[in-house]
Amino acid sequence: MRKISLIIIFALFSIYSFSIVKNYKEIKYPPLKVPEKVTPEKIELNNGLTVLILEDHELPVVSGEIMFHAGSVCDPDGKEGLSELFSNVLRTGGNSLMNGDEMDEFLEGTASSIEASSDDTSISVSFDCLKENFPKVFDLFVATLTSPEFEQQKIEIAKAQMKAMIVRRNDDPKAIARRVFSRRIYGLTSPFSKQAELATVSAITREDLIAYREKYFCGKNAVMYIYGDFNAKEVKKLLKDKLAKSLKTGEKAQLPSKIKPEKSGIYFVQREGVTQSNIVFGNLVKMKKDNPDYPAAVIFSRILGGGFSSRFMKTIRRDMGLSYSPHAYIYAPYNYYGFFMGAINTRLNATGKVIETALSIIKDIQENGVTEEELKQVKDEFLNSYVFQFDSKEKQIAKVAYYTFYGYPVDFNERFFNAVKKVTNEDIKRVANKYIDLNNLTIAVVGDSSKFDMPLTKFGKVYPVDVTIPGLKEMQMKRMQMMKMMKEKMKKKGEKVKKHKVLKKKKMEKIKQKTSSK
């Protein structure tokens, strides 16, 4: 019986073995299934606010987000950091319904959230809650937008946190290199290079925050979406009764967009005591996401420096062992020009060699293009992963809201998806030559030049960069003086206490003597 069982098992195993495909390339995959498309209802309130609504009863949750055209490009000169401080305090500073601490307690107790954030060209406020808490959370959301309190105590806390970040911004050489690079790419006088400093954060007042909200928080300057378990008819009434009446109409903000790159060359920051060089290089790219070359730029970026199978990773990491995570890509925002950027960190005595190698890899693609195998592999990888950006209804409505906000067609993702499928080797070669100028690169290097393998002048004119934080020494001196004053004050207090104890002891001895004499 046991022998028969073994024969049957062997026979089944043999059949299974013959069914296995010997070459992985022969495996046939079913066509990629694109997630079902959803179409949110679009309405415009009396105050000009565009709202996208999608009712979905799958889960008992409701979420939403409103985006305003604003951001750090709008920070006034001398008050850089205003947008960041505004988004930090907008929610934590309370509103006409609850103060900041009460909101913290309510939101935490109901597993809800209301959050604000900002970037270069926008400020967004979002909410998320269970269906049962939606009416109350929505009231707080509206009050946050229309009647924030900006409590002074919360402003001071947020300022202290921002200043702490400024003080520490030179701790990471990698961050220094990226900051030096981006500010030279857009130009030091560009609104895209605005940088908060200790003095500018100190200069911001509560009145500045109130004026900022008044200027940018208006219906025509925003797009909103709301998604989840609700009745769409009731939500539309809620929006009209509460948000349309309390948020003014206003106008769409015209954001500053000046870009004037600094001279190309090597921008060098000397850092003694470090063991590695941090290198960031590239150039301004006149491309936004709606550029016809954007799909090819995305695939080019993946092939050049976008993962473990990229040319940067294969050559610089695997073959040469000079860097752990070299990468490169073309960055294209929605509403302003982006850049090409490569970033590599390596040992000091390989700095020049790494730069040479990276540039030669780019040059090879510019001259010879890429292989069909590379192109097919990267396109398949990208397309197979891209659908996960839209694998839920909430992700889809959020994307449609972003497209509406930035003036893109609502089916932009489908157009982009189909365009990626059509990218050819010639497209990759053309994009590499059109958008990367190897003769006029901006290269930021942070490291110890005394240990470099070759002078940086080999790659262009070197411009030393001083990254000293303005006002830091004065702040440290003031802090030291305060510590000294506190120490002296404590010393005097200690001496006073000691003197008091001595007097008390003498007094007690006198009392004791009088008592004993009686």
UniProtKB/TrEMBL annotation:
Residues 51-178 form the Peptidase M16 N-terminal domain. Residues 489-518 are annotated as: Disordered. Keywords: Hydrolase, Protease. It comes from the Bacteria. SUPFAM superfamilies: LuxS/MPP-like metallohydrolase (SSF63411). The keyword Mitochondrion does not apply. Residues 204-380 form the Peptidase M16 C-terminal domain. One of its GO terms (biological process) is proteolysis. GO terms for molecular function: metal ion binding; peptidase activity. This is Zinc protease. It comes from Thermotomaculum hydrothermale.
